[in-house]
Design a protein that fits this description.
Blueprint lengths: L6 E5 L5 H11 L4 E4 L9 E6 L4 H6 L5 E4 L5 H4 L10 E2 L4 H19 L2 H9 L15 E5 L3 H12 L3 E6 L9 E4 H11 L2 E4 L13 H6 L4 E5 L8 H10 L2 E6 L19 E3 L9 H16 L15
Parallel strand pairs: 1-2, 1-3, 3-4, 4-5, 6-7, 6-9, 7-8, 9-10, 10-11, 11-12
The structure holds glyoxylic acid (GLV).
Glyoxylic acid binds next to loops.
Length: 314
Amino acid sequence: MAASLPVLTVATPWDNAEAWRTALAEAAPEFDVRLWGEAPDPARVVACAVWHPPALLFERCPNLRVVHALGAGVEHLLQRSEVRPDLPLLRLVDPVMTERLAQWALAGTLFFQRRFDRYLRQQRERRWLRHDHEDAGETTVGVLGLGVMGRAIAALLRRNGFQVIGWSRLPKELPGLGTWSGSDGLRAVASRSAILIAVLPLTGDTRSILDGDLFAAMPEGGFLINAGRGDHLVPADLMAALDTGRLDGALLDVFPVEPLPADDPLWHHPKVFVHPHAAAISNPRTGAIAIAEGIRAVLRGERPANLVDRERGY
Ligand code: GLV
């Protein structure tokens, strides 16, 4: 029976590819869901759910009609010429992933606001020393990137009493949230933010946006949290800002090269906290439902909300 169904193929280097296959088979029973490499006949492949897929997939599947990313950031797919411009490309927007990221950002904010960073360093030196701190209501957090993820972070931080402001490249009005846009707006947000949280898409406009100029605009002793992409950050500028005390800590979940190479100085910097791209791991069970809906919408000829705008780059 499966032999007559169109094929949805899953291609990812992640070690949970089989979990994705199973979840998609359940969420999209109208497809024969196969791991790439086990797809019986490439001509039957009409849809794919991918993360860093092999180029061959696109060359070998003449009837491919839709490409769905297994994560939120799609710059790695946009950089690939095989992902032809006429192929609808969708990014994953999954409420569970959004919640995971918002909670991670809240944890990072509390980590710095309550100075867990300092106490961790003190413990290593067996130093018993208490530090007063500003309360949440006195702490302004700037969220860079006001898409689904940034808005969820802003809402959760506000529910926890923080003062939150936001920045996006293009102007965006959001109820109850002070927002800025453009490059002047970026400096304005940085200058007001004790903590900056970046959840931007990686595009030509946002590459290297977290640089020395931005850190110079921040209040002395500020903190940076980055969960966008490694290429948003200029690591040398960050380390210089940390060394001069301009910034007092950074929590990074993303890096230009992942895994972060063993000899990268970020591993050893006492004020840098390295997470292995784990802030919002895609979740097969709920992600598969969102992916199935997106693929169905495209095949019905509709325009799903999470369709990537290739001009915009996300
Ligand atoms: C993770 O970083 C993603 O883009 O989903």
